[in-house]
C-alpha cells in the first residue's frame, strides 16, 4: 500500500509525462509515434471518453487536446497519415480492439492479447465460436470471404460477404468491429475504392502475423492478463478494479486474480493510493 496517497494533481502530472502530453515531449515524426507505441504497449489512436489510456493524437499535440473537426489540423494529419502509412509495415497491431475503438498494440504485447482471445491459429477457429453462438452470422460471412479470397478492400469485402448496399452498412460495420475486437481481422492497407476513393484493405490476423498464434500458445491467460495490466498501470498510474474490468472486458474474478498476482510479485501497490478515491480500492505502480 502506498505510504502517502498521491494527489489528483500528481496523478495528472505523471500521466502527462507518460502520455507525452507536454510540449517538449510531443511526437513530431512517424518514428516518434513508433517509439511511443513500443513504449506504452497499448494505446488509442484518438482519446475516447471514459477510457483512461494514452493516445497518439494528444501525444502528437503535446497536450490534452480535444478532437477537432477541422480537416487541416496538423495534429490530426500526422496521426492519421502515420497510421495509414504504417498499415502494411507491421510496426504494430492496429484495429478496433479496446471498446471497439481504434487501438494500437506493440508487437511484444500482441501475443498476450491474442492469448486472451478465442483464437488458436487454426483456420476453423471461428466455426467453434459460431456454433457456440459467440460469433454472428455476418461476422462469419466476412471472415469466410477473407479466408477464401485473401485480403480485400472494404467495398469488395461487402460484396463477397453479401453485405453490400446502404441498407446493410450498419450490419457490415458492426460485424467488422466484432471481428476486430475478437482479434480475427485487421486493416492492412488502404485502397482507392468506393465513393471517397478511400477504403481499408482487411486481412486475417493470424495470416498477417503468422508467428503470433504460436507465441500466444506459450502464454497462459493468467500471465497474459498480468502482463497487460502491469503495462497499463505503468501508463495510467492508477486505476480501480472496476475500470480495469470495463476497459479490457474482464470478469470481476479475473480482474481480482490478476491484481493479486501482481501484488504478490510486488509489482503494484494495493490500497488507497489517490486522495479522494473512496468508492473503490485503487491500484498504482510501485514507485
What can you see in these coordinates?
With 287 residues, this protein is α+β, with helices and mostly antiparallel strands. The chain folds into three domains: 9-108, no CATH class; 125-216, Winged helix-like DNA-binding domain superfamily/Winged helix DNA-binding domain (Arc Repressor Mutant, subunit A); 220-285, Winged helix-like DNA-binding domain superfamily/Winged helix DNA-binding domain (Arc Repressor Mutant, subunit A). Helix content is 47%, strand content 13%. The chain contains 14 helices and nine strands. The protein has helices spanning 8-19, 30-40, 56-61, 74-86, 110-115, 125-131, 137-149, 154-160, 169-181, 205-208, 212-217, 221-236, 241-248, 252-264, and strands at residues 42-44, 93-96, 102-105, 152-153, 185-191, 199-204, 238-239, 268-271, 282-285. A three-stranded antiparallel beta sheet has the order 1-3-2. Strands 4-6-5 form a three-stranded antiparallel beta sheet. A three-stranded antiparallel beta sheet has the order 7-9-8. A hairpin with a 7-residue loop joins strand 5 and strand 6. The mean pLDDT is 92.
Largest sheet: 3 strands, antiparallel
The number of distinct structural domains comes to 3
What are the secondary-structure elements, in order, as H or E?
HHEHHEEHHHEHHEEHHHEHHEE
What Rg do the Cα atoms give? 20 Å
| Content-based structural category | alpha+beta
Helix % is 40-55%
Separation of the first and last Cα atoms: 11 Å
Strand elements, count: 9
Name the average pLDDT: 92
Low-confidence stretches: none
Amino acid at each position: 500500500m502506498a505510504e502517502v496517497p498521491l494527489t489528483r494533481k500528481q496523478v495528472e502530472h505523471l500521466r502527462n509525462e507518460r502520455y507525452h502530453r507536454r510540449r517538449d515531449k510531443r511526437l513530431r515524426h512517424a518514428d516518434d509515434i513508433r517509439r511511443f507505441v513500443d513504449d506504452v504497449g497499448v494505446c488509442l489512436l484518438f482519446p475516447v471518453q471514459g477510457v483512461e489510456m494514452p493516445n497518439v493524437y494528444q501525444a502528437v499535440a503535446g497536450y490534452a487536446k480535444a478532437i477537432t473537426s477541422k480537416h487541416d489540423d496538423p495534429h490530426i494529419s500526422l496521426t492519421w497519415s502515420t497510421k495509414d502509412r504504417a498499415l502494411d509495415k507491421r510496426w504494430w497491431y492496429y484495429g478496433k480492439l479496446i471498446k471497439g475503438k481504434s487501438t494500437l498494440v506493440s508487437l511484444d504485447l500482441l501475443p498476450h492479447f491474442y492469448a486472451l482471445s478465442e483464437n488458436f491459429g487454426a483456420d476453423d477457429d471461428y466455426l467453434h465460436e459460431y456454433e457456440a453462438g459467440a460469433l454472428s452470422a455476418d461476422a462469419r460471412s466476412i471472415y469466410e470471404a477473407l479466408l477464401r479470397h485473401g485480403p480485400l478492400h472494404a467495398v469488395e469485402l461487402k460484396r463477397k460477404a453479401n453485405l453490400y448496399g446502404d441498407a446493410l452498412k450498419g450490419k457490415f460495420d458492426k460485424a467488422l468491429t466484432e471481428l476486430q475486437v475478437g482479434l480475427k481481422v485487421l486493416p492492412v492497407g488502404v485502397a482507392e475504392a468506393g465513393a471517397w476513393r478511400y477504403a481499408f484493405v482487411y486481412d486475417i490476423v493470424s495470416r498477417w502475423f503468422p508467428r503470433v498464434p504460436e507465441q500466444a500458445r506459450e502464454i497462459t491467460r493468467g500471465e497474459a492478463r498480468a502482463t497487460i495490466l502491469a503495462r497499463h498501470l505503468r501508463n495510467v498510474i492508477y486505476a480501480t478494479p472496476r475500470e480495469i474490468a470495463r476497459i479490457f472486458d474482464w470478469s470481476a474474478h479475473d480482474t481480482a486474480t490478476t491484481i493479486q498476482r501482481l501484488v504478490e510479485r510486488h509489482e503494484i501497490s494495493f490500497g488507497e493510493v489517490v486522495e479522494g478515491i473512496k468508492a473503490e480500492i485503487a491500484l498504482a505502480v510501485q514507485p
